[in-house]
Specification:
Layout lengths: L1 E4 L5 E4 L1 H6 L3 H44 L9 E4 L4 H6 L13 E4 L6 E4 L7 E8 L8 E18 L2 E18 L6 E7 L10 E9 L10 E6 L5 E5 L5 E8 L2 E8 L9 E6 L8 E2 L3
Parallel strand pairs: 10-16
Antiparallel strand pairs: 1-2, 3-8, 4-9, 5-6, 6-7, 7-8, 7-9, 10-13, 11-12, 11-14, 14-15
Length: 288
């Protein structure tokens, strides 16, 4: 008896003796060739399935790499156990925290803060968090972006029993895609500030973002703001996430602000502003 197993584990039986007794050697030859063909087909199917499994694993690894890749300007954050305050950062000997020289802190003491919040010491200026939640595919805690009308020296994100510290040297007025890689929700966020270079109470600033038609930040866009009375011109470049800030503008004055980029065009590339106070959300959207 000759028994052949196919790919699915079933068996095909061929009686060699029966074929020979009937003198049907030709029939046996055909069956033998058929058996060889089935073995070859099973090997091809097995190889194809192995290839599909390898491709599937590679795809999963690629997706995980994309999810885990942070795009903040601060990478990686400093991780400290416990409830850390800005005064702790000021007293720290960590080389990444030596630019922090005050204990000033603005704390949003509630879970997953979203929206615009006025500073305690200066209600005329505020910080905005566009999204703070744990909505990534692998349930990671994330702060998508934030902007501030006061220069920030560090951001403290409290998740569970751990504080994630994002230091900014030079000081920052915004950041995006802050990723703690922690599956727990955010319990509170603190902004450390207090630099002597912040705009004075008599001055105003203008800030916003330059984005593509799809909403992605455009880095390297050049903005100019012109005082309509004095014709004084100031320029600024957007950061990699498209954010920009003009500081020290004269309150109560009229300004023209315009944007240009060598690869992007804008239907509305100039705006007229009356700057009575600090302005945020002065955004430009490209045609592409």
């Amino acid at each position: 008896m000759f028994k052949l197993f196919n790919f699915d584990g079933d068996s095909l039986d061929f009686s060699i003796l029966a074929a020979l007794k009937k003198g049907s050697f030709k029939t046996f030859s055909v069956l033998f060739l058929l058996a060889g063909l089935l073995v070859g087909m099973a090997a091809d199917i097995n190889a194809q399935r192995r290839t599909e499994v390898i491709k599937s694993k590679a795809q999963v690894l690629s997706e995980k790499t994309q999810v885990d890749s942070p795009s903040s300007t601060v990478d990686p954050p400093i991780v400290i156990e416990g409830n850390v305050k800005c005064s702790d950062l000021n007293a720290s000997t960590n080389p990444r925290l030596q630019h922090i020289t005050t204990n000033d802190e603005f704390k949003l003491n509630f879970a997953d803060p979203n929206g615009t919040f006025a500073f305690d010491h200066d209600p005329s200026r505020s910080v905005t968090i566009s999204s703070a939640s744990h909505v990534m595919p692998n349930n990671e805690a994330i702060v998508f972006s934030w902007t501030s009308q006061i220069a920030i020296t560090a951001l403290i994100v409290k998740v569970g029993s751990v504080s994630y510290i994002y230091p900014y040297d030079p000081f920052a007025f915004g950041d995006s895609n802050l990723n703690t890689h922690d599956h727990q929700g955010i319990s509170h966020i603190s902004f450390c500030y207090g630099d002597t270079l912040s705009p004075s109470a008599a001055d105003s600033n203008v800030q916003g973002r330059v984005v593509s038609a799809g909403g992605n930040g455009i880095g390297g866009a050049r903005l100019t703001i012109t005082n309509a009375a004095t014709l004084e011109v100031t320029t600024a470049l957007t950061n990699p996430f498209g954010f920009y800030t003009f500081e020290g503008l004269e309150s109560g004055s009229i300004y023209f602000i315009s944007v240009n980029h060598r690869r992007f065009t804008f239907n509305e590339n100039t705006k007229l502003l009356t700057v009575n106070d600090s302005l945020s959300g002065v955004n430009f959207i490209s045609n592409q």
